[in-house]
Each structure stands twice: as C-alpha cells, then as structure tokens.
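Reading a protein record of the kind used here takes only a little practice. These numbers are not coordinates but entries in a learned vocabulary of local backbone shapes. Here is one such record, which you should read through line by line.
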Amino acid sequence: MFYFLPAVLILYFILPQKARNGCLLLFSLIFYAWGEPVYIFLMIASILSGYFLARGIEKYRGKAAEKICFVSAVIISLSALGFFKYFDFVTGSINSLTGLSLPILKIALPIGISFYTFQLLSYVIDVKRGNVPAQKNIIDLACYITMFPQLIAGPIVRYSDILTELKERNHSFEEASLGIRRFVTGLSKKVLIANTLGELCDVFKGTGEASVVFYWMYAVCTALQLYFDFSGYSDMAIGLGHIFGFHFIENFNYPFISKSIAEFWRRWHMSLGTWFRDYVYIPMGGNRVKTLRWLFNILTVWMLTGLWHGAAWNFVVWGLYFAFFLVIEKLFLSKLLKRSVLLSHIYVIITVIISFVIFSAKDLPSAGYEISALFGFADIPFITGETIYYLKSYGILICLALVGSTPLVKTAAEKAALKWEKAVNIAEPLILFLLLVISVAYLVDGSFNPFLYFRF
C-alpha cells in the first residue's frame, strides 16, 4: 500500500497507453515473485503454453491439429493444477484405503494456481469455441493472467470480459474515485470485521469450556468471516481494476439474503459459479437431459467445486452437500419455500452455516462432531460463563457484521445521498479516510493475517 502500489501507479500513469500493459505485467510478476519466487516459472510456463496452443487452435481451425492443440492446452493446465494441488491428497487417500505407504511429497501449493488456471482455461476454451480471437500479443495475454489486483484470489475474470480494455481503456477521476472507495471498503471489511471475527474463532478453538451456544457463535462467525474476508478481497481487486481502467465482474451480491440455496450460489463467489456453469455443467448437458443424467451432472459439478476449494475429503463432502440441497430444491422443495419468506430465509441461513462448519473443519470427524454439538448431541453444556463473556465482548461486532452482510447499509447510504447530497459528498471522503487510517493502524498493531482464500 505504501511502497509497491504507489510505485505502480506513478510509473503506470506517466507511461504512454501502449506501454501500460507491460508495466502492469512487470509489477504483477514482481508482486507474485515476492511471495512465490520459484513458482513464478510455473505460471510463466502455463501462460506460454496457453498462448502458443491458442494460436495453434486458431491457425489450424477445422483440422486435426486444432483438436490436438486444444486437448494439449487443457491437459497441460489441469496437469499442473492436479499435481501441485491434489497429488498428496490422492496418494494419502490410496494409502488409507489400501494400507500402502506410498510417499507423500508434501508439495507446497502455488499461490493463486486455482484462479489463474481457470482464467487460462476459459481463454483457451473461448478461442476453441470461436467466441474470442487468439491473442497475438503475448504481453497482453500475460497481463490478463498475472494482473496483481485479482491474481491471488479472484474474481475469476474471463478474457472475453476485458478483451476490449486490454487494447484500449479510459481513465478518469470518477473511475479512480470509485476504485478508491471500493478498495478502502474491501480493506475495512477484511481488517476490521473479518480479522476480528477470526479472533473469536481462534478463541473458540483454544477454549476448554465449549458450549452449544459457543458452537453456534463460532459457526456464525466462521460464515461471516469467510464472507467479509473474501468479499473484501474482491472489493479491493475490483477497486484497483477501476483505477487501472478495468471493469472486473462482481463476485458477491449479499448472498445471506437468499431464499434458496440455488439463489445463494447465484450471489456467492459468482465468478466461480458461472465458470462451472458455462464450462462444465452446460457442456455436459445441464438440465436439458434425462433425470439420472441431470443428477450425474449436478453431482459431478459440485464434487469438482468442492475439490477446487481444497484437496481434502471435507471439501468433497461440502460440494456434495450443496448438490443435495440443489437437487431437492429442483425436485420439490422450492415450491414449499415460496410459501413462507421467513422459513425460506431460516432454511438458507442454517444450511449455509452448517456448510461452512464442514468447509472450515480440519477433517470429516471434526466436522461431524461440530455439527452434532450445534444441535446438542455432544456432551457439553448449553451455555457457560465463558460463553456469556465472549458473547458480551463480541456481540456488537457480530450484530454489525450481520447488518453489514445485507443491503441495509447500502440502501440507507443511497437514500441519504439523495436527501442530503452536499453533506454526503463532504462526509464520504472523510469517512473513507478514517476507515483507511483505522485499518492501517490495525495492520501495524496486529499480527499477519493473510486472506483466507490463499489456502484454497
């Protein structure tokens, strides 16, 4: 924020338009190499293979070589992702099932590989479909893949969405103002809300006096922490994109106000959901097939969605858990949910909270115990003095987070802007500056808190 970002901005805006993609590429490589000096070569190799093979797809259109280039591009991208992310998981699973002792390599996961692999795949697939032309300028393609604002944790930006802006984009004070607003909002969500909720989650994990109420506090805080952490990152990425003239897609749209799980996934991690829909689900036939085939499609897509988040069985179960609710909603539950808005919201909230218990658990047995504790089936008291203490300490923050996860704040701000336009125009920059100062103070005073999705 105080060295890297100002250096990028200064050099970026003093350079001519034609050199700006190269500037972003250079700084993005530095950004990535700062934390992953070795794996930057893996990312560069992935970009080079995607670039040349996409050119081959276009060059040999209609010939056998086109298919060879396309299949090669897909295999190369998925092989890299599969080896680094899933080799140890598969090996460990085989050892557990067979009693073998195959070596576990303990491979470090390259940061952001799930995101940049999916971006590269979407580019290659869109070239194969004829939706976009193959990029002839390797600097532009590499800039798209490595762009540091969203390189680490999304949103998953499709090449087709920013193709025009890679060639020519407009910069203005209005766009920069909007970008700064989103960036500061995202930083505040991460530092002031997500990190503080994370402190309570850490307290819970270390407590010796767990209770049913404390388990519910932990489950609610885990869901809210994930939301504010990841949506905060997305806000920061989208904000930086505006500053540099790019319009990245929205990634969250108040998912906790959903009235069904299907709606929840139209609002949560939207770029991932639409990616699987367009590149996996629909090519498999979507829902325009017989019932058994449709069930297979749903289970496949959601098992892959779970595995995309992490190489562990709890992620597989997490994905299949959502598949189950999507299936029963499609078959009969959605009709029942429409009868009561209140009951539909309660159903979604409880279902999602339980899902994130599975998501955040260290393994399946732990997830099973935590879910049983939520419903009083564990040998723990309903409430303890320690639970009451932490409920009082964090109650206000939890309430603020709950309100902040709904459109209430945004709606109120928009109404205030219409009614008291001049006052809001003066107050908004002051509030944003104050939030920035407080966030930086928290960062300086606190410990290192990376974004949660780094490990997914």
Q: What stands out?
A: The CA atoms of residues 200 and 206 lie 10 Å apart. The chain has two domains: 4-146, 174-455.
